[in-house]
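Justification of computing resources. Each target in the renewal requires a structure prediction run like the one illustrated here; the chain below, 192 residues long, is used simply to show the kind of job we budget for.
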Amino acid sequence: MSARPAGTVTFLFADIEGSTELLQQLGDAAYTRVLAGYRALMRRCSVRQRGYPVDSPGDTFFAVFAAPRDAVAAAVAMQAALARHRWPRRATVRARVGLHTGTAVPTRRGYAGVDVHRAARICAAGYGGQILLSEATAVLVAGTLPAHTWVSTACAGCAGRTGCTSCGTPSCPPFCLRCGPRQPCCTTCPWR
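Resulting structure tokens:
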């Protein structure tokens, strides 16, 4: 595992979509196995990309990266690993992932600061299978990835104020935070 990053870092939050319903569907024992498998996959993907796992309360996973490109690579690897994994009782486990680059104060048990909260809110705005990046993160990784990989998500009604980008892969379509979760960005979007 890499050393604990400091300074300007990229925060990654992941969360299982519909975890309460999944728990009710599977029951405590099977859900416990799902949660253990989910945490192991998320941790493995983050560590392989030089991430520092911080915490995983409930079904949330929190990791920090010194380089935003490593955080994006970990997020993509996480989504691929979740899709490939054979879950107990044929469960479908989909996670939303949010990334934000900024600063925070290292604490004994993690990090504290507005940028940590911003990353968590970005994650919460997504839906299962999606990776959302703050504008701060998207700008830092834009020149290092193929041009067709990233799609801006601010629709005309947002006037460019959302400041988030969604990974534009088939399993992660364009998304507008103003239009709400599960609503693809409108077709008149000038930012596409």
